[in-house]
Amino acid sequence: MKDIAPKLIGLLKGGYCTPQLGRLGRTLREPVTTLQYNVKKLEREGVVHSYKAVFDYKKINEGHCTYLLINLEPSKYGEPEEVSQKIAKNPSVESVDVITGDYEIIVKLRCKDIDEYYAFVKQAIKQYGISKVISLTSLKQVKTEFVNCDN
Amino acid sequence: MKDIAPKLIGLLKGGYCTPQLGRLGRTLREPVTTLQYNVKKLEREGVVHSYKAVFDYKKINEGHCTYLLINLEPSKYGEPEEVSQKIAKNPSVESVDVITGDYEIIVKLRCKDIDEYYAFVKQAIKQYGISKVISLTSLKQVKTEFVNCDN
DNA sequence: GTTATTAATTGAATATTGTTCAATAAGGTC
DNA sequence: GACCTTATTGAACAATATTCAATTAATAAC
Hints:
Two copies of one chain form a homodimer. Chain A has five helices and seven strands, in the order αβααββαββαββ.
């Protein structure tokens, strides 16, 4: 066998998708050429960043979801963006934000299991100047990427 | 004019997209029929939930991003999922998780501005049995939906 | 290990969908 | 109003996806 699925999932995760003009046209009762024009405009203006697949993350070994509230070491405190960008490079990281309040950074992490999660946190504390991490582990993912998770 | 963009954005936010088999085929050097088969299988198995657009949220009036850490009133404490599902219905809500730790629910919210955010929080506290909300406001969105935000 | 059964791969034909292009209309500017 | 830019649209064309049937690979049964 070829086991194409993993490669497919990898590509569909961040692109390799496109809007369905025909279906949009039927729904909005507009000619496809009009929608074509409007879609291209949105792309040109940078309003649409990309088209991608949304997964049932449990089924692609990313079922363990954690929010990390991060404090930086004094030496890194002035540059939360730099640290954020480094963290963002990790493919298990769904989102990174520099935030107000008691913590500097919030990370949404998707791992296979608690072991992978623990490996990430250990490595993160070592590599980026992190002084403290509070982990909020998801017990139930109700909505993700604007999509309601059924079951 | 018709001002189709808002309708288009609404539909592309949660679907109306499809994988590009041809492009995938060229990249993976596989016949489209093989990929077709594999994609359909992933869909059938529920691995892929949907295909959607990712936006530059500032450009669609959802630039104000906040994480809400929520505590429930004693009367609702036993049913965080029910409350979560109600919160999830709001289209400004990107994600909802029931979590471990000092809070019961974490919500990722995307609003136009702080006024819209405040309106959401006021309404949420009234409607769902919420006793306390801590808001972590995003100062800089570095990565979103697995996509690195440039600039 | 051979046979039966199911799952996966593929090419060729077909159907569907998207793209280009040129005409027209609408909106804005002076 | 004259001009220029932006938006809408249909018809012809190009590209892409889908179906289907044949073949191969994997799995199960005996």
